[in-house]
Amino acid sequence: MDLLELFLFILPAYVANGAPVILGGKTPIDFGINFFDKKRIFGSGKTIRGFIAGVAVGTIAGTLLAYFPQFMPGVSFNDKILISFFLAFGTLIGDTLGSFIKRRRGIERGEESLFTDKLWFLIIALIIASPFYNGKINLQLIDVVILVIMTFVLHIAFNRIAHAIKLKKVPW
Ligand code: CTP
Ligand code: MG
Questions:
Q1: 23-75 pLDDT, tens digit each
Q2: Are 9 and 137 in contact (CB under 8 A)?
Q3: From ligand 1's centre to the CA of 109, what distance in Å?
Q4: How many angstroms separate the first and last alpha carbons of the chain?
Q5: Ligand 1 center to residue 166 CA distance, Å?
Q6: pTM above threshold 0.90
Q7: Which residues approach ligand 1 with their CB closer than 6 A?
Q8: Contact (CB, 8 A) for 13 and 71
């Protein structure tokens, strides 16, 4: 896949990952409950509203993108939406699992963790959506490598912007 195709393909996941920063709520997914290690299961940064908003907005983005032929070329309109939903859903599952791992490793909410913050959501989204895009979109290993690099770079850029315009307290 070329760079534009790859970027558009993963855009629903990016949108799903960013939406909770603006649309996140109060009630945490773990309801404030601690795990066996007496640390929070996911932490206060993972809210129910943020999760739902991320999946919804990511799917809406995919639905709008579905009108463009450069978005998942050769895939039917309905499948584009279906794949977008699972990319968005996978993103939020990955994001939540990432926080679970961070808490187990004793990393506080908002504290940076290179791999879990920036790439975990991408890997999980690609895995969870794969049954729906396999056979329709030809994602090669090199594409995944490019996605990893692209996500890493864009994540740093976007979080710095979000920090600069005071959407986020920390620049990561
Ligand atoms: N957010 C949310 N619900 C989610 C995910 C994110 O409300 N399911 C919001 C929270 O306000 C969160 C912000 O988006 O603080 C940024 O998300 P993220 O960087 O993923 O969370 P952190 O606060 O850094 O927490 P963690 O250390 O667990 O990653
Ligand atoms: Mg964070």
A1: 999 999 999 999 999 999 999 999 999 999 999 999 999 999 999 999 999 99
A2: yes
A3: 8
A4: 29
A5: 14
A6: yes
A7: 20-21, 24, 43, 45-47, 50-51, 95, 99, 102, 109-111, 117
A8: no
